Amino acid sequence: MPEIDLAPLKPAIENYIPLGRSGLLPALHAAQKMYGWLPQEVAGEVAKILRVPLADVHGVIEFYSLFYNEPVGKKIIRVCTDQACALKNADGILNRLCKQYDLEPHQTHSELNLTIEPSPCLGMCELAPAVWTMDNGHSTVGDGLSEVESPRSLVYGQNRLLTANCGNGTTSLDQYGKYSALEKAKSISREEVVNEIKSSGLVGRGGAAFPTGIKWEGAMKAHADQKYVICNADESEPGTFKDRILLLDDPHRTIEGMCIAAYAIGASKGYIYIRAEYPYILPVLENALTEARNAGYLGKDFDIEIRVGAGAYICGEETALFESIEGKRGFPRVKPPFPTTYGVFGKPTVINNVETLCNVPLILSIGSAEYRKIGTEKSPGPKLFCVSGDVGKPGLYEFPFGVTLRDALEMAGGVANKKQLKSVLFGGAAGAFATAEHLDVKMTFEDLRSVGLPLGSGVVMVYDETRDMRDVLKRLGKFFAHESCGKCYPCQMGSQRQMEILNRIADGKTQAGDFIRLQDVGWTMTDASLCGLGQTAASAVLSAMKIWPELFKDEGGMMKDEKESRKSKVESRVSKAPKASAKTVKKAIVKKKVSKVSKNNVKTVKKATKPKATKKKTTKTPKKK
Amino acid sequence: MTITFSLDGKEITVEDNATLLDAARENGADVPTICYHDATTANGLCRMCVVEVEGQRVLQPACIVKAGAGMQVQTRSEKVIRSRKTILEMLDSTMDLSEAEEVQTMMKDYSADVNRFPDAKRRESPVIDDNPMFIRDYSKCLLCWRCVQVCADDAQYTFAINFDGRGFETQIGTFFDKPIPETSCVLCGQCAAVCPTGALKPKREFLLEQGMTPQEISVLNTGRKKRKNV
Fold this sequence. Notes:
The complex is a heterodimer.
Chain A: H1 9-13, H2 24-35, H3 40-50, H4 54-63, E1 75-80, H5 83-87, H6 90-100, E2 107-109, E3 114-119, E4 131-135, E5 138-142, E6 147-148, E7 155-156, H7 173-176, H8 180-186, H9 190-200, H10 212-221, E8 228-233, H11 242-249, H12 251-265, E9 269-274, H13 282-294, E10 303-308, H14 318-325, E11 349-353, H15 354-371, E12 382-389, E13 395-400, H16 405-411, E14 421-426, E15 432-434, H17 445-450, E16 459-464, H18 469-483, H19 489-506, H20 514-528, H21 532-536, H22 539-547, H23 560-574, H24 579-593, E17 618-620
Parallel strand pairs in A: 1-3, 7-13, 8-9, 8-11, 9-10, 12-16
Antiparallel strand pairs in A: 1-4, 2-3, 2-17, 4-5, 5-6, 12-13, 14-15, 14-16
Helix pairs in contact in A: 2-3, 8-12, 8-15, 9-10, 9-12, 9-15, 11-12, 12-15, 18-19, 19-20, 20-22
Chain B: E1 2-7, E2 10-15, H1 20-26, E3 50-53, E4 60-61, E5 72-74, H2 78-94, H3 101-109, E6 134-136, H4 146-151, E7 162-164, E8 171-173, H5 190-194, E9 200-202, H6 203-209, H7 214-229
Parallel strand pairs in B: 1-5
Antiparallel strand pairs in B: 1-2, 3-4, 3-5, 6-9, 7-8
């Protein structure tokens, strides 16, 4: 390998030195942009410049999927293989591309300097299939055939309040007009602003549905020398793409929402934390922030900094997002303390989803009383639904709360190709499945909750009658196993075990006891996990087990568990299986995988689990699963 | 100040800063823990100490949650038992618990089934013997985080170790997997002291277990020194 020239690194990351540890992710992004990946020497130099311990820098690189500590191609093609894209032949596209370049997924073609990877949801579900290409730092998106700079916005709805400026390209400040809602907010007291938000009944649109006004009130009342407002734009929930469109087409609405929040709680600093998979939004946001600064809305009492994630679904969890801003691995924190008193850098923080913030200027403009006239009594306001999958007209739909699923589907062109509906995945990977019997349920928090469906982030993912739900479940399992942070035991191991069982079921290799095993793993993750990711990692799976128990049956039509429980009852009367036999079985399995290693065979070696380069032409990037 | 609350249907009174774990232990209720250690910051990550608190949607980690007046706490509800048992079964299917005596005892207490997860992927890695003080056998590591914590700001401020990978693939590691002598490690030994499973073990203990006599070990050490002097 040629000597790495570290000289240009310091000037490139100098701006981040004053940020200290918090500058680590931006610095690593800059370094990776420069060197293509993060070799040891570069990581070490970043550590030295920012004065962060070496092991910590390595830990951070290892955590985020989009940081590479092994060489990758200058061109990386990422093919989304998650839900909506899977329905549009994502696997076929991935295979075709791999075949074309004689590569395996995750492999790098050293001559062409090309890497091809399957990817978790890229947030372009309505445009599925989605492919994201980075070529020497230049990002394009496409469908595997053609590529464009940034994705189109397909926006629908009769009375569009939140998406009024969406669907026709980026809205400049001139087009957006004055921040009149902010001016109105500043003409009343902080308490009055918070009360307006409280009276509006606005709840968080990121998935957790926590009352926004109560959040703001907590942070407003907290005493601190510094407070923060954070816009959570780490939209990564499979099936969700609303924040992408809101930020790309109408960035000032979010920025104005943040300014109002900052005034209300007394924050002087804000962050927009955006997922790295949306690089095409960055110049739009930067430009909008400059416009807002020039107009005097930002830069005096309050200013906003953009932070970019690096491939970690968990960083959409608010406390994991704080850790990420602080330059750490995205481990969620134990709550309480809650962000309103102990948020980013331990200071009172209001963190809101993009769509939540977009509601704020609307509420201030028309007043909470008018706002409450939209939607239902318990779910006031407009709501964005991300409709994708097997529908005629996938896209972003703005409806008032209370529209039925049937109406929504009709407006979205019905089930595609005149097929019948099999199911709708509500709320994303962390959501639950609905069927035709739920068509007349009103899409409100209260109506959906009463039938056990979460609204989540507004995902309506449609599956037609021909779809094999076992394949859908297999992809859900893979998603959570890939995205679990590994902190708490239930999710760290449960997401892996869940994936293994779902793979077996999809492959028709169900084992005795899998039904109950899957349930126990699912409920353990749900009940005992530390954060929202683990607590919802089995939500869709458990709902599928209720609706389609037959999917988990063997060919005889009987659930293997029934047989097993009968068999085991008999067995348990006779004798219990001795522990030794189990261990022997396990050892045999282990030996197959790591043949050279046995317990007493001590070798002075580094971790040998990482596959090394095998072929001349291709190397496998080991970090990505 | 003291507060009174209900633990397994019994009214008990504890200091108002007590965690549910303190309260349970003071009152004879058995709440198992794996990651918890008196010398390290409680992270509530093993979730073995979870208890059911009335009004809470999910189970609560007793090592962190403070006792509150009027709380209704169940330390052995059906949900709690299912979670603990499943966690133990998943642990056993993932790593080598042969030297994790406390966990083995818990497995018996909760009738955990060692055959629960057939064909489960295990975390396997070779023993790393790269320094004169301790060996690292990460096949036995259950990721309690204590070693990383004492190496960092819970005790030594050395920051020699952190995490590799993510999710199930997480492992404790050094900067780019460098051998310990090439890291900031000061060989203080605190990581080995807080390790609950034998994943980190003093080198001498390890060699004695391998069947070496103290004499042989000391020759090994002198031998090394002599070679260096030459």
